[in-house]
Structures are given as C-alpha cells and as structure tokens.
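Priority: medium. Attachment 1 of 2:
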C-alpha cells in the first residue's frame, strides 16, 4: 500500500520537502521572470519584454479588426434581409472607425443579390411594395358597387 501511495503522491510531495520550492527557483521573489531565469543579459531581457508587449498590442489590434469585420458583415446581411439593427455591432463599427471594409468577394455577392432583387418583378415584391390601405379601400368600394348593381337588377334582393 505504501508503494502505491508513494507512486501516486511522490512527485507532488517532493515540492514540499525543500521548503516550498524556494531553493532552486529561477523566478524572482515576486514570482515574475527575471533576466537570469531566461539566461539573458539585462539588455536582452528588456528587449525581449519590449517585443512581447509590441506583439501583444499587434495581436489585440488584429483581433479588434477581425471583430469589426465580422460586425460589418452582420450589418450588411441585416440590411440585405431587412432585419433589425444590433446596437452591439454598431458600437463595434464605431470603435473600429473606417478601417473596416467588407471583403471584396462578400461585397460582390451582396451587390449581385441587390441587383437581382431590383430586377426581379415577382409577386412577393409587388405585394411588399403595395399600399394595403389603398387596396382595402378599393376592394370595399368594388364590393359596394357590385351589391348596388345586384340589388338594382335582382328582384329578390
């Protein structure tokens, strides 16, 4: 039984045996990396830290640009399909400014679809563009005229 416990917990308990691992730790006293822990001179380490910060800034900028591009695509699709706008996407586009455009292929697809919709004279498009109040008034007046004509000609009515 002791063998099994030693196998399972042995490596974890070794860290406690030397006083919490303070003896051969390469990190600084506050837990941060130091030039010695990386095997570099102080100048090299400072340059390394500077590069890390610059890379992080560039990654954050690229990520924000990609997010704004996706938001721009969602806005274009909402416009195309006449869906309500999203405040989150609008805010994302305002934060990105004018730096974000739709990719050429997607912009071309949206333009082609809009052209097809403009040239398409389907029944659905005609119904969407029709004024329902005018249509209702016209239908009621036609029914009234038919009823009056039928009453005049028919003896039973």
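Attachment 2 of 2:
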């Amino acid at each position: 039984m002791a063998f099994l416990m030693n196998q399972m917990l042995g490596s974890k308990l070794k860290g406690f045996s030397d006083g919490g691992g303070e003896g051969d730790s390469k990190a600084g006293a506050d837990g941060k990396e130091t030039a010695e822990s990386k095997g570099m001179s102080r100048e090299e380490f400072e340059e390394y830290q500077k590069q890390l910060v610059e890379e992080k800034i560039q990654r954050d900028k690229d990520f924000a640009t990609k997010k704004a591009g996706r938001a721009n695509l969602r806005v274009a699709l909402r416009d195309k399909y006449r869906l309500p706008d999203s405040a989150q996407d609008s805010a994302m586009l305002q934060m990105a400014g004018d730096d974000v455009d739709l990719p050429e292929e997607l912009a071309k697809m949206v333009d082609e679809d809009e052209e097809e919709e403009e040239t398409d004279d389907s029944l659905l498009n005609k119904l969407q563009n029709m004024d329902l109040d005018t249509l209702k008034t016209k239908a009621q007046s036609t029914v009234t005229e038919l009823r009056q004509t039928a009453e005049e000609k028919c003896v039973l009515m």
